[in-house]
Backbone:
């Protein structure tokens, strides 16, 4: 009799589809997959300060300090993972050849589906999606001034306190979002996987082209 397959334990993770900046960096040989799994930084973004998480989830673990401007896309990591924050010019210099971040073709208002791979357990509060403002400059690293001031979508578990519901608050392998309907051209999307029982979120970034 076949034994049921053991489900992988969930902790750190990365998006495996569609291709994120992290996936591009792995393909280029600049990073290993584990580094993309560990682009973690404070979950109070876009705030710059550590401390209690947003209402009504103050019973979640306090946030550590969120990523500084220019290091947002790597979750604040300033080691080799800093390449995730690079402009096209910086990447071209790094690689010694012309480079532009590949763009995912999308339509305004379409459903954008992502698939995650996780590697061991975190109690999940949810997922938060940010996008660049109209008129942002791809010649500059992403800072808060380049992004819309609030997320365009949040997908949160509502159970509180988390420690009474941790078995229910599982990280999602597949989830989706409706993209903004009023964007055109190249934009950067920042997706945060927000953890309830630590001070961190895990950051993933995508370059998209709204047709």
Residues:
């Amino acid at each position: 009799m076949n034994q049921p397959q053991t489900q992988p334990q969930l902790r750190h993770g990365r998006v495996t589809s569609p291709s994120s900046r992290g996936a591009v960096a792995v393909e280029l040989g600049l990073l290993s997959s584990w580094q993309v799994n560990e682009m973690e930084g404070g979950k109070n973004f876009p705030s710059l300060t550590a401390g209690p998480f947003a209402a009504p989830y103050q019973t979640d673990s306090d946030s550590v300090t969120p990523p500084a401007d220019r290091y947002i896309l790597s979750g604040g990591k300033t080691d080799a993972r800093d390449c995730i924050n690079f402009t096209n010019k910086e990447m071209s210099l790094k690689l010694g050849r012309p480079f532009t971040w590949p763009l995912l073709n999308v339509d305004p208002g379409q459903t954008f589906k992502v698939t995650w791979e996780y590697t061991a357990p975190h109690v999940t509060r949810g997922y938060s999606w940010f996008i660049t403002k109209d008129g942002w400059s791809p010649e500059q690293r992403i800072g808060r001034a380049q992004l819309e001031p609030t997320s365009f979508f949040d997908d949160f578990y509502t159970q509180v306190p988390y420690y009474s519901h941790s078995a229910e608050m599982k990280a999602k392998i597949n989830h989706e979002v409706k993209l903004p309907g009023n964007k055109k051209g190249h934009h950067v999307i920042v997706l945060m996987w927000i953890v309830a029982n630590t001070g961190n979120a895990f950051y993933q970034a995508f370059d998209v082209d709204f047709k």
